[in-house]
Amino acid sequence: MPNSDTSHVVERLALLRAAMRQQQIDALIVPSADPHLSEYLPPRWQGREWLSGFTGSVGTFIITPEFAGIWTDARYWTQADQQLANTGIQLMKLTSGASVQYVDWLAAHLKSGQTAAVDGAVLGLSIARLLEQALQAKDVALRTDIDLLDQVWTDRPALPAAPVYEHLPPYASKTRIGKLADLRIAMKQLGAQRHLISTLDDIAYLFNLRGADVNYNPIFLSHALIAPTRATLFVADGKIPSVLRAALAEEGVDVAPYESVAAALAALPADSTLLIDPRRLTYGTRQWVPAKVKVIEAINPTTFAKSKKSEADAEHVRATMEQDGAALCEFFTWLDQTLADPQRAPLTEVAIDHHITAARARRPGFVSPSFSTIAGFRANGAIMHYRATEAQHSIIEGDGLLLIDSGGQYVGGTTDITRVVGVGAITADHKRDFTLVLKGVIALSRARFPRGTKSPMLDAIARAPLWAEGLDFGHGTGHGVGYFLNVHEGPQSISQSAMPEPHTAMEPGMITSIEPGLYRPGQWGIRIENLVLNRPAGQTEFGEFLDFETLTLCPIDTRCIDAALLRDDEKRWLNDYHATVRKRLRPLVSGDALAWLETRTEELS
């Protein structure tokens, strides 16, 4: 995935440095963020990618007159090495848990009297505080009032204009009125009269609304201000149809222009109390709140509320998993038949994306992919967030492992699954690595733990089989998943880089991925991923316990397993899982796909 044209990067950096000189800026920070701190960004805020050519979803870009570097984590190191080659931009490797390492770099390299700059509108408030503290200690000024990209990005995209629509019953199992009432109770408990929300998934959840402003996530650009009796939704003119706007008004929700949130916050009464979440708000947005207003800082109550799916939500997710699993049966049937055909045209990684999306699109309730499909053959599978493009991809031929990580957005849920299949002849080393990763999946899938266990504490369970062999992987073991919302959702995170703080506690109804992996750069990558649901698992004298219900329904390729490495209880788990997959998917497939399902779910002895 090399950067095929580095001249654009060199030219753009030269223009940017000229603008920096004009503004007397010694270091510019370009985060991967928008005014809502989204993971996936509307094109207007993909400035770091536009400047550098690095397409990873995470990375902080720092430019000085003599230096340019991108800080990113282990998921993207191989990709960044390739895409940044010959650009003059250095890859700065973030180690686990060191996501603000660039702050220390700035403090060490900038001199007293110099100036750093960042667009405050896209700088997280909690990061801004760390940055201010570190730079002030070195007598370095920090400017947050300027967006230098606007001066050099002459064809910068406009704000997205996709319409907003309702997420309707039966899939929306709780009404807007009910959710707003719950939120106001939580606000009152925290001592707040008003609450500002800027995170787009929180807003979509609260108002039972969806949109298409961000690829893969059914959300829309907006802010929301919740008052004691009414709420205001700040969204661009024309995005909410008049009928929906009238329905919102009847339920106590006013609609105002997107840009008017600044004036609304400036007009807050002097005696008001405002709840904000410093991890889910930008520095620039925080500046709109007058000093006279008392501010309470706590996690958005909606972040907890949307993470705990109701039983009605869970039933819709189960049905969605069946449809998604049936689509995957059809896809993998096609893949096996294509690979077995000696007369076939060359099969590319790009074709995998097209065919898997088409299979899902034939299923009821499908809206879009939930992220960009990762189809990596051989060495490309070792690039954790690899994406094949028409310009850069591999042909799937010969022998090796093919990793496919994909997902779908359905009105009844969000899916995310990774499977690895063997192409041609696979080796004993392939099978050993695959089986060790599978052992990690099984270990965590079978775990039982006290309710309230901090999610990062579970990470080691999935790593233990790999650690025992001196192996590891450079990403988290699991992330929360939304309900027809973002495929990555908090507050839970099964990751050694996440802090085991109170808000990461595991609660019933949470949906989380289990996805250990193993990556050998230049050779192959393996990841096996299922989604699981937290469910009650009994009460003892030590308290209430939870375990996992596996939601994902798709065979795990037993052709890649070294059965000698699995204990009898691990084989039983796999055989029981496959029996469930077969039983639930059999009514939804027929013909060759049914035959494929029966074959791939045969017992492993």
Automatic annotation (TrEMBL):
Domain of life: Bacteria
GO CC term (a single one): cytoplasm
Keyword terms, alphabetized: Hydrolase, Metal-binding
Domain Creatinase N-terminal stretches: 12-142
Domain Peptidase M24 C-terminal span(s) in chain numbering: 544-604
Example GO molecular function: metal ion binding
Gene3D superfamilies named among the record's database cross-references: Creatinase/methionine aminopeptidase superfamily, Creatinase/prolidase N-terminal domain
Peptidase M24 domain ranges (all copies): 316-533
Coiled coil regions, renumbered to chain: none
Family in the record: Belongs to the peptidase M24B family.
Protein name: M24 family metallopeptidase
Species whose genome carries this gene: Rugamonas aquatica
